[in-house]
Amino acid sequence: MNRYMNYRQTWQITTMLPERGMCLQKGAATTCLFFSLLIFTCLNLTAQSSVQNVNTSLEDDKIRIKYSLKDSVSARLFSVKLFAKTSSGSIPLTKIEGEYGDNITIGEHEVVWDALAELERFSGNVAIEVQATPEFMFLSPKRDQSVKRGKAVTFSWYGANSTMDQITVELYRYDELLETLGTLNQQGSYTWQVPGDMKASDGYRIKITGTEITGNMAAFSPPVRVMQKIPVLYKYIGLGTIVTGATVTVIQLLRALPPIFVPE
Asked: What is the pTM of this model?
């Protein structure tokens, strides 16, 4: 069963090049391609991601493939791969130039494929598949966000098929590994309950590590700051003033001071 089945959006567009195909010849090598089906897929984590406006054309014995990426988040990046599917199986396209690979933004893009170099001495039906996978990034927390001892902070992320993978979560302080927090199954977030005796400091972060599903991805979260709880004695200050001669006592109302970060 395809492990990505529930996360795959597929658009099927039947398109015919002139005379139902093309034959390219270079020296003694002849490659004949018959394009009966183009498949464009987006391995995505949200329903707002899609591959659209796909079209192909033959130019100078090469195939020009145009496509556009759409997403509700304007800053989202994708990893784009192309494949040729024949009766013998799926072949990753390597003889290509243009906008593919990592860090592809939303918008319109194009790729030029040298089919003769890729499929030398081939004749038969070919389906081209374009895969777009959201790149990994942390959504929260914000860098240097503060959290008090005994409280919780949630780390969340998306992309790189991370919500389809088994993720190992480790706790670091700067570059020092403190402990393994656990293993998650298809969650996309982890809530860390800060121990009451955790050392107050900057630089706490988690590292998540995936398996082959995410390409053995390993990524660190933004760092957070752990603060110690401020005793009540330091949180509130009362001030009383006695005005002599008038026998009047003026009491200044208690007011809360802002949190104070005191490193240990």
From this structure: 0.60
